[in-house]
């Protein structure tokens, strides 16, 4: 989203872009962490409710979020989806403020994965996480959470006590994919294959 300042310049043009690479967001490669997860016995997935809305926008920058609708002129006092650098800002907020020091979990934007060696340890981990979320006034979406599982879906993979594998529906989608007829279709198909090439 961009807005036009009184000077006539686009506020979007003056925004500093923040790297989107996963390693910069989380401090670890996703593939590395997924293999760490496979050594654990119990898993929970926590979904943060309206994730971006937990971050207030500086008062002087609220006008930059303005939108015009048939019902009037509106702006956002809290960060919303679609703002440049929203993903990176929220991930850093989680890593360096909310979850700092909790080394038994992995946060990827609004999903938090907890992995533990046994059920007693897992419940201690959950208690520690919920205490931290409560302290930081972070709410969760219970309907999208999963607790104390021996396997869990995470970013198009199934992670379990026996290992890691692509989700069955994703494999079926690749098998049923129509034969590419153009370069664009071929590139799209290869993109799907590349995501799972380490499992072939």
From TrEMBL:
Keyword Cell inner membrane appears in the UniProt entry: no
Domain (Reverse transcriptase) ranges: 1-159
UniProt GO molecular function: endonuclease activity; peptidase activity; RNA-directed DNA polymerase activity
Keyword Hydrolase: yes
Protein name, entry field: Reverse transcriptase domain-containing protein
Alphabetic keyword roster: Endonuclease, Hydrolase, Nuclease, Nucleotidyltransferase, Protease, RNA-directed DNA polymerase, Transferase
Transmembrane portions of the chain: none
Domain of life, per lineage: Eukaryota
Biological process according to GO: proteolysis
